[in-house]
Write a structure and sequence with these properties.
This protein is an alpha+beta fold. 44% of the residues lie in helices and 25% in strands. Strand 11 and strand 12 form a beta hairpin.
């Protein structure tokens, strides 16, 4: 803008100079026709890097520019065009190529960005689909887990019912065993009574017929008071664990020991009077352990009391009648192995008793 203003000012000054000197410069124009014409027709103005030429038209009648300068009117101003060199053209060409390459590179980068964005969106959608599938699988697994939990609860109920029925069966078995013991005891008593009656009958018949049975007759009623007596009853107040080999059960409390035939330290009864003896013992099982107790006569097991490794403490008893000779030994023995145990406290849960039913007559 500043350059344009300078050009306008310069143009105004030239017009002013032409008007002031139009009257007195006629002679000089004729003398210096060619030089002044050349100066008027090719007047240049330089401002900054730009060069401007003021062009005054020639007289139409005279092509040699001989008309007065006063008749000349400045009608055109044009900017000089600098001639460009080959280096400048090469630079312009390179710049044009660079700009085209830049625009092409920008277009390619835009395409790549669009493609990358599209690929990321596709991957995001695929990821969302996978997440939805995983959520669906998790839901299905949760439903399956709930179904299995319900099935497990049903099975637990069945197991509890089975355990209850098994407990009832065990109790029934214990009842049956007790009834069998009662029946055995009654049969033993019945046999004793039968033998007694048979002896009395034979005595009566023998007295009448003069026949005496071999070995004589058993003593009549009332004569037992004169016979030797043997009886004992003992208890164990502590628990006992099994070991290898099998071991005898000792006792630490004596209720009765008539005749001192029972030795509580090793729990052994030594026969002093030959005859028929009745023995009974009671054992409480140890929870989680097996119980296998045998009544042994001279190293031979006669009866056994057995329980499984139940989580309850079970009280059981066993009885037997034996015909013993002098110096026979009878004791209770726990089977070998650390998986066996019996339980007792100060309330005497383990007991062992026996007595002479009648002596053996010669």
């Amino acid at each position: 803008m500043l350059a344009v203003c300078k050009v306008a000012v310069l143009f105004s000054n030239i017009l002013l100079l032409v008007g002031q000197n139009s009257a007195g410069a006629q002679n000089r124009v004729d003398v210096l026709r060619g030089q002044q014409c050349t100066q008027v027709c090719n007047t240049q103005a330089q401002t900054g890097a730009c060069s401007y030429t003021f062009v005054v038209p020639k007289n139409e009648r005279d092509s040699s520019c001989q008309s007065s300068p006063s008749a000349q009117i400045l009608t055109e101003m044009k900017r000089d065009v600098k001639k460009t060199s080959d280096k400048t053209n090469r630079l312009r060409h390179q710049f044009s190529r660079y700009r085209e390459d830049r625009e092409l590179w920008s277009a390619n980068m835009h395409k790549e960005v669009v493609n990358a964005t599209a690929r990321m969106e596709i991957r995001s959608l695929e990821h969302d689909v996978k997440v939805k599938n995983l959520e669906l699988q998790l839901l299905n697994q949760s439903l399956e887990l709930e179904r299995l939990k319900g099935k497990n609860r049903e099975l637990e109920g069945i197991v509890l019912m089975s355990e209850f029925e098994l407990t009832q069966l065990r109790d029934s078995r214990q009842t049956v065993d007790h009834l069998n013991e009662v029946v055995t005891t009654l049969q033993t008593r019945l046999n004793e009574v039968s033998q007694l009656l048979t002896g009395q009958l034979q005595e009566m018949l023998g007295g009448q017929l003069g026949i005496r049975p071999p070995g004589g007759y058993p003593p009549p009623p009332g004569a037992f008071s004169a016979q030797p007596q043997s009886a004992f009853s003992a208890a164990r107040q502590t628990k006992m664990y099994g070991s290898i080999p099998p071991q005898r059960i000792g006792f630490d409390k004596i209720f009765v020991n008539e005749g001192a035939d029972f030795h509580p330290g090793n729990g052994t009864f030594v026969t002093r009077v030959a005859g028929v003896y009745f023995f009974t013992f009671t054992i409480q099982s140890y929870d989680g352990k097996f119980t296998n107790i045998a009544l042994v006569q001279n190293g031979r097991e006669q009866v056994t009391l057995y329980t499984e490794d139940d989580d309850r403490n079970i009280m059981q008893s066993q009885s037997i009648m034996l015909r013993l000779s002098t110096n026979d030994n009878v004791w209770l023995q726990m089977d070998g192995g650390t998986h066996h145990a019996i339980l007792s406290f100060h309330d005497n849960r383990i007991t062992f008793s026996g007595y002479l039913v009648y002596a053996k007559f010669s």
